[in-house]
Amino acid sequence: MSFMACYYLETTTMKSSKFIGTLFLITLSWCFVTSPVSAADLSISAGGGVWRNEGTGQLRYKDNPTVDIDYLDYDKENRGYIWAELRHPVPFLPNFRVEYVDLKLSGHSSHPFAWDDVAFRADAYSETTLTQLDMILFYNVLSLPWVDLDLGADVKYIDFTFDAEGEGRSLDNPSVREKFTEHEDETAYIPFIYSRVRANIPATNFGIEGDVKYITYKNTTVLDTSIKANYFFDLKAVKLGIEAGYRFESIDIDEDDFSGLTFDIDVDLKGPFAGVFFKF
Question: Per-residue pLDDT for 15 more than 50?
Fold first, then answer.
């Protein structure tokens, strides 16, 4: 995706978005000026694995009462993730990374809750999904034998879906109890400042790295961070690796900061992950 496409997406989504657009472009411009040449040779890497996550926090549809995720009694979930990355030595042209994770939380509620125009009874089934696609442009601003530092910008696409099914009462006609289903599906594009640091353990194929994606604007704050260890097996044509770590996401989105959204979400997602990857 081009710089202008990313800028267009986030500026058409957020209210008063001149500040966010300016921040997004300043970050890329700073990296552009300070990193005239990428230190990396041409390389392509990709990987995937499983993230075992659990969620806590709150959801709210428009002016409905807040729904506590603890009362929805969601189970821990094993969800897949994939990523791919392109690094190159072309001056001034940023490197590119894409990440995808399909998060889902589901369970039968232990308490009554309201969503849209329905008051569900306890034991209603619900699913909350947070499908995410990160499109990252970055520069390798520091490359030493034992440490690497990347800085850049990210646009995160979030597809939020909430489904509920169970007995309840319509808020418009509370005297009648029946079975209801509710479905809500909305999307948002959110720009981030991106950073990643990797420490290489000398004389080994071990490394430890962490990354941070962060933005705060008005009443919305989103943090996505992880730390992991990985190991390379040097093969003839490709490097094969394994990775394991811990990821934490804090997603606090206020519907008033976005155009077209009808929900507030304040959710923390956390848990260990493990996967495999290759590089050539």
Answer: no
